[in-house]
Amino acid sequence: MALLRNISNSFCRIFQRQASSDSACTIYSLSSGHVKCGVSVIRLSGPRTKQALRAIIASGSENGFEFEPKPRQAYLKSFYHPVSKEMIDRGLLLWFPGPASFTGEDACEFQVHGSLAVIAAMLDALGQCDGLRPAKPGEFTKRAFFGGKLDLTEVEGLADLIHAETEAQRKQALLQSTGALARLYDSWRKRLIRCAAHLEAYIDFAEEEQIEGGVILQLTRELNAVKAEIKDHLNDQRQGEILRDGVRTCIVGAPNVGKSSLLNMLCQRSVSIVTPLAGTTRDIIETMHNFGGYPVVFADTAGLRRQTSDAIELEGMQRAKQCINQSDLILLVADARELTTLDSSQSKSVTYYIEKYLNDLDIPLALCNDKVVKLVANKTDTLKTDELENLQKLSNILTISCLKPTNEALQEFLHALELQLQQLCGAPRAEHPRITHMRYRQQLERCIEHIDIFLSDYKPDVYPDMAIAAQKLRQSVRCIERITGHVSCEDILDVVFKDFCIGK
Fold this sequence. Notes:
single chain; alpha/beta; Gyrase A, domain 2; Rossmann fold; 3 domains; six-stranded mixed beta sheet; 12 strands; flat
């Protein structure tokens, strides 16, 4: 056990040395967008921040070496090139001494006019200061992570917040970036560490004496409680991941039932080509859409049927089935005239028709087992009033006329679809944070496996090798630590930070 702890500590020291060597440099970058704007923010972080700050404002009556900025106070200053001494711009300066800064290091911000020429001149001026270099993508956040300001779940939440495109995504990312998941996972980690510590204490001090069964029973009760909480956390129907990545919605159906028309209507623009000819769409046409605050990836597919000799159509049908397999929601479009025989008094009639329709389209039911399938009755403008009323009484069916949508019918259709998206994505809540990344799910499942191994080894009258049992508990702790970043794994860090923008 001592050897394992020494190895673990050695790896930690290696990662800490690498982090400290990177932090020896002071980094700078434009943190606002690379476009013309009213104000741009240039950020610095590192041990030579104050020297660089003084070098940029040191000229004439503004003697930078006598200037001592107060923390988190804005100063209106003129900024100069340290070599040519020419004035670049006049703007705001803010000083954030470590550790009370985003990165935990000394940091400052220059707020200048958003001219591309001003930005270029400021970056060139900072490049002339000793000990400064341009920041790499995500390096400010990486320093905050190594400085203990953020754990890895908060870092990934921050990345999601930067990339959020809808209101629901923003809420979920904000909760994660402010520590909702970190607090939950850290509570499990501490409870598992406590169990492992108690067990190791008995290993170290009990010597040859029989270990009291009551201690083991108390450990098993606590482990079962943690295991139940983790299982409940995992049983979330992937809501957090679906919301983060977008609800993949596949529009399928027979040729010429109005799939492309439905996509164009939902997106309020001409995404797919629509003609009276069947089989116009041959490939997958995808578009991202903010639908009621939820991100939806709509996919228009080729019309499906059993018999065709067209090689291109066959390939399009095969791609449509692949799209179904990767989707979260399936909009199964049918001609409303074919649904008039459905009986509203029989609750299973729609389910039976969906299965029959999928079979007619040669779509294996296994592809749709874990998907939400909604039947869309299009071309309702061709129905009589009583036929339409009977159709609208059916559950699990949406009615619409893409050719002649009335405002009332369109609003009802959109509302029903939005309710379905709410069920798929859920509502982000601080008291019940959701899993947002597949690696969280994988590590939590492994954590349960290690707990199960320990629990299966325990027998009321026979005690296993306690050293091995303790190792299983330590492995369950490591699984949680790989999520939060308490155990540094360089490959995980590379994946996390690779998508960050420069300046963050």
